[in-house]
Amino acid sequence: MRVEIWSDIACPWCYVGKARFEKALAAFPHQDAVEVIHRSFELDPNRPKGDTAAVIPMLAQKYGMTEDQAKDAERRLGDNAAAEGLAYRTEGRDHGNTFDMHRLLHFAKEKGGQDAQDRLIGAFYRANFAEERSVFDDDERLIALAADAGLDADAARAVLADPDAYAEAVRADEREAAELGATGVPFFVLDRKFGVSGAQPAEVFTQALEQAWGARSPLTVLAEGAADTTDGDACGPDGCAVPGA
Amino acid sequence: MRVEIWSDIACPWCYVGKARFEKALAAFPHQDAVEVIHRSFELDPNRPKGDTAAVIPMLAQKYGMTEDQAKDAERRLGDNAAAEGLAYRTEGRDHGNTFDMHRLLHFAKEKGGQDAQDRLIGAFYRANFAEERSVFDDDERLIALAADAGLDADAARAVLADPDAYAEAVRADEREAAELGATGVPFFVLDRKFGVSGAQPAEVFTQALEQAWGARSPLTVLAEGAADTTDGDACGPDGCAVPGA
């Protein structure tokens, strides 16, 4: 069974939602048969690299709040995070372009599989939401986080130095999100059959996992080929169908 | 709609099957909505790199034929290829380890998307089945084919120089093939719902495309999140759900 999670590093509900999903997954009896893939979704894809700003004034402006009200909203988000055991720095965070982090998440999957990707997105979230040093516009920071996640630092540096590296993979994820109808994140897709949008309570994820598990179906094989027939010819480990005279 | 094609470069029926599938796809009214992804399947994953041998004696030994009978079998395969407009060199081909070609196909998808991947697998097939110069144990040959497919030659060289590059992606494809029940190739999977095994006639692919098109279904959304609720909180392009006091 495959769960794909579209998210953005700059999305606090993605940070919280990942923990809630993982709580459900940890208690799911078939957890070993569940493959989790992180997919890219930039909330603000047009924000240029280098355009990094403080979160509190942005929130105040965006929602027509005072800065104190924005701080209160961040504190309540922090309470949601704390309820999942997550650290959350309610003041002093910044936000910016996340494209490079998404590129590195694809690099992580490519080089280290899903476990490395999961470690890296966890590290990005912690760094962004819980630690003082910014994750934006600081390649060395991202490289250090990649290395902590078990990836090769020089290879991560090379990815950051080449703006095309994994760029297409990020955009392909974003196109797919649109095709699947996702307009916000986190967005969870189970076996391409079921969708769960938002940082739902763990119980909702439990129900979704159970429903998707029950709906698993083998492929309907419409036409069967073989290495020993003359119709639907195929090759297998023991050889290829030999065409008759 | 997504069609995944598991295949191996060393598999003549994959070469023929790709052309038959493409004939069906070219006549399919919704072809623009079909995404084609090539997935890796090594027929002989334990064959070491460098263990390259001539095809005809191998066929003769494997099937208990004389070499003349093996040549006849290859000529009949060539007739099948010719019927699809494909060149096929019936004598003098060799076979060997294809892992590096599969790694490059993942590199192609990463760097140039599905079109580049499709061009490259087409180039590998032509080179292996229709051209004199071997594709095995010849990095410069593979790099030249990658460059012809529009990829960066130096980047392709770097992939070949690093045995870990895209290795995990190849293995993940192979694990998925096993999970889906594929024991031979070509193996076509439509929207992870329908399977077609073998180089079936184009009409079979037409029927499979039609059936999968009819079975397309949007995701069943089990829980809807929003950027403006307090349950299933989410972030969208216009901002994040602000937790209430």
TrEMBL record, chains A, B:
InterPro entries: DSBA-like_thioredoxin_dom, Thioredoxin-like_sf. Gene3D superfamilies: Glutaredoxin (3.40.30.10). GO terms for molecular function: isomerase activity; oxidoreductase activity. Transmembrane segments: none annotated. Residues 3-209 form the DSBA-like thioredoxin domain. CDD domains: DsbA_FrnE. The keyword Isomerase applies. Keywords: Isomerase. PANTHER family: GLUTATHIONE S-TRANSFERASE KAPPA (PTHR13887), THIOREDOXIN SUPERFAMILY PROTEIN (PTHR13887:SF41). This is Protein-disulfide isomerase. It comes from Streptomyces alboflavus.
